[in-house]
Design goal:
The protein has 291 residues and is mainly β. It has a single domain, classed as TolB, C-terminal domain (Neuraminidase), CATH 2.120.10. The chain contains 2 helices and 23 strands. Strands 6, 7, 8, 9, 10, 11 and 23 form a 7-stranded mixed sheet that branches. The protein has a 4-stranded antiparallel sheet with strand order 1-22-21-20. Strands 2-3-4-5 form a 4-stranded antiparallel sheet, with no helix packed on it. The chain is globular, with a radius of gyration of 17 Å.
Length: 291
Amino acid sequence: MSGTDFEPIARGYYLEGLLVDGADVWFTDIGAGGVRRVGSDVVLLEDRTMVGGLLLNEDGSLLVAGIGGVVWINPTSGDAGVLIAGLDGVNEMRADGSGGMVFGTTDLPSIMRGERPGPSSIYRLSREGAFTQLRDGLAFANGLSVSADGSTLFFNESFAATRAFPIDASGRLGEPRLFADKPDCDGMALDAEGNVWITGFSSGELLCLAPDGQQVRRLALPGAACTNVRFGGADMRDLYVTVVDLASAQALAAGTPLTEQTSVLYRGRSPVPGAPIARTKFQLSPKGFAA
């Protein structure tokens, strides 16, 4: 197992929703709510809780997952609205290569009550606002990424495994193959070589796998668990990770309020550059689309 030096750059109760755009490093705090930026005291959408996913639209607006669906806010103008309404919850999101996005649903109301969540699904939302359910009956939808050539959806089904779904010409998913037998799979990112980086909510390392599932490297982290990983910097080799405490993860699952800021956002250096995360191309409006 190889390692790197990490420096802490932010702290909170349970950090998630990591997004890196140039000099801007955005993140969320499940325990405190809202969307935050490293180096700023401003909190956007501070009343929005359980935000596990952030994504950028082409106009610079942040797409913010959470209870009820997805909302958006432009951090420059302050304009805000709804993108998706009518879902119990949305977690991670990724651009689909055609201006829309793929995303996973989660049963956030049950989680907030400390109950076992219901099944998850994977959806696609087209640029024009058409919904397609790509897969249902999943244990828990988490990190996901679309390969550079658009042929594969890598998907973390937490509490089960990481899977690789073939994507056909219509954008639908074929039968998956087991990509990694890793039940604690959580966040995900791709590097410039097409490798898949996977975090674990109960393991203190990053697992890097080639597109065929062969292990490329393991990278030790400064903590017992990790929720998110992203690349950034001028050379895309800055490596950002949100590290959490195992006790906080257990409290969150039980619906118990978090009382200590034991979660840390770290920045290190990667041995390889990361792949940029594409933006969506939605024409955003106050009301959005109903699922």
